[in-house]
């Protein structure tokens, strides 16, 4: 019939194209690059995966994470284990993983993977050497600057003039004693001795008065 002929003439619809499979998004790792500076014994499974990612072996992350390979387990890896258990058939790739692992173990065994004091010294020592060199080279200039600064400080805050101690007999330390030869009264040895005794007695009397006043205050 005509209807049957028309149905036969119509082309069959093309088979629906297969939908592309959704690409799985990478799972974020619970580890930071800073944690890789810790000793390997402290590495978690995610840290081992991050280490592999940094080496360029993203395809091995799933296998390592599936077997829960953490830092202590990674220490026991050999090139044979990488080939037999994880299918790393390429010898150069096995060497890259294995030798990087050995470097980390060597650092941990010698001084630790993070020797913060050593790192600090490595930063400080060059600056200390530069400072020492400059201080030797410009020692005279630095001394001159220090003198200028001291003069500026003295001019800004001049020291108070010294006031000589006055004695009860009208003399002071500038006209008696060691400076009596600068114009003071010339005294005989006996007179000097008598004056010293008088000053000593005066000091003792002053001290006694002060002690008596303290005792009176305590009694009050």
UniProtKB/TrEMBL annotation:
Keyword terms: Membrane, Transmembrane, Transmembrane helix
Coiled coil (residue ranges): none
The UniProt record lists the keyword Magnesium: no
KW Glycoprotein (keyword) present: no
Source organism superkingdom: Eukaryota
Domain SAM: residue ranges: 43-107
TM region positions: 116-134
Compositional bias segments (type: Basic and acidic residues): 199-220
Biased composition (Polar residues): 169-181
InterPro entries documented for this protein: SAM, SAM/pointed_sf
Annotated stretches, region: Disordered: 1-26, 153-220
Protein name: SAM domain-containing protein
Source organism (scientific name): Prymnesium polylepis
């Amino acid at each position: 019939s005509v209807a049957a002929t028309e149905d036969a003439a119509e082309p069959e619809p093309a088979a629906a194209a297969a939908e592309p499979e959704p690409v799985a998004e990478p799972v974020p790792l619970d580890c930071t690059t800073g944690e890789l500076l810790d000793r390997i014994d402290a590495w978690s499974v995610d840290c081992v995966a991050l280490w592999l990612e940094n080496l360029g072996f993203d395809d091995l992350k799933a296998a390592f994470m599936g077997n829960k390979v953490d830092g202590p387990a990674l220490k026991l890896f050999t090139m044979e284990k990488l080939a037999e258990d994880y299918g790393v058939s390429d010898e150069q790739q096995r060497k890259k993983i294995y030798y990087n692992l050995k470097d980390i173990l060597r650092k941990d065994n010698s001084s630790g993977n993070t020797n913060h004091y050593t790192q600090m010294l490595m930063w400080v020592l060059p600056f200390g050497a530069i400072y020492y060199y400059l201080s030797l080279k410009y020692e005279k200039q630095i001394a001159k600057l220090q003198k200028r600064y001291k003069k500026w400080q003295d001019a800004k805050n001049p020291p108070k003039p010294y006031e000589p101690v006055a004695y009860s007999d009208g003399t002071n330390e500038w006209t008696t004693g060691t400076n009596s030869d600068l114009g003071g009264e010339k005294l005989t040895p006996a007179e000097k001795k008598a004056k010293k005794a008088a000053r000593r007695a005066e000091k003792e009397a002053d001290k006694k008065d002060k002690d008596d006043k303290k005792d009176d205050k305590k009694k009050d």
